[in-house]
Every structure is written in C-alpha cells, then in structure tokens.
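S.,

Sequence below, as promised.
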Amino acid sequence: MKRLAKLVSASIVLGLLTTIMTSLLIAAYWPAGWIYPQSRFRQLETIEWMIPVPDDWPTTGDITTVTQGSIGMQFYSQGLHKYTDESTSTYYIKRISHGWPFAALSRYEAGSYVWTSRNEIDALMPNQEWMRGVRFKLPFAADHAELLPTVPSVGFIANSTLFACFYTMIMFLIIFAKSKLKTKRGLCSQCAYPLENLKTCPECGTPADPRTMVQ
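The prediction came back faster than expected:
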C-alpha cells in the first residue's frame, strides 16, 4: 500500500512539473502558434476589466473583444475606445494562455495608446504594474516572449491529471515487466532474493510464484 501511495504521489508531482514546463516552453518558443482569430465589436457597453486597472481607466465606450485559438495557445483581448475630434484613446488588456493539450498557464498585459487624426500612435503607455506574469526571457526565445505565464487556469488541472495518469501507467508497466523478469530468473518478485524451490521468500515473506519452482 505504501508503495502504491509513493507511486501515485510521484506521478502527481511529475504531472504538475510537466504541465508547468510544457506551458513555459510553448510560451517562450511558440508564442503565436497557428492562430484562428474571431473578433466582435460592441458599441457603448459597460466593460468589466479582467484584472484591477488604474482608477482613471474608463468602463464605458466602444468595446472590441478578440479571441484566438491555436495549438498550445489561447488569446483573449479586451479593448475599449474613446473618441474625440482629434484622436482615439484605446485601453486594452490581453490574456494569453499557453499549454498542451489545454491552455494551462496565463499571462496578462495591459496598456493604452492614442491614435491621432493622422493614424499615428501619439502615445503608448504599457502599464507595467498591472501585468501578471514573470518577466524573464529564456535562451533563444522570441523577443515578444519575455513575459512568461504564471496564472493557472482550468486547463492546468486537466493537463496535470492527464500527465499524472500517463506517468502512473508507465510506472505500472515498468514494475510489471521487472516482476516478470525476476520470476523468470527464479527470484522473488519483490526483493529479488534467490528462491531455489522455496515456497516463501525468507527475506521479505512474499509467496513464491509457482513458475519459479524447479520441476
């Protein structure tokens, strides 16, 4: 029973580590993936920002939401636009999630910019303090993959469970194969003690497999 508990615990830990490493590697080396965009534009509605934002950010205006999906990545963006005669102010939050087979870890980016009447960006103000993620760039990663995801989502549990089940199955197969090999060599299936026609292992007390008995 203790052996089974150790095996399951090891599988859970390996499943968690695999989920985290897979998400970070995809975020660093495959930040875009194959993207299938879907966007919609809503006018004059109230927006609820996904994360706390500065007090001077508006909550009503022309709203654009963009969702994208790909292998290993999901993208969701909120954009709110305020218009004047001379410029358009845009406030945005992006949630980018990475992982396989499901998006497991997310990062958030927030900022604002102003479009002038000449269709030029007059001011770009990314709000560093409202970002969620770790600013760290892995070797040879893309330039726009400096913010690694750290916020878990529902996919984190699903991925960890799948990987844990996979590792549990592999460990059971290894234990089964080693037990069969010991039996074939006339050894105890638990401690590998030479049985030599003994009905019970004198080392650990495990009953001998009849196939280890010499006829």
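The two ends are 33 Å apart (CA to CA).

Coffee later?
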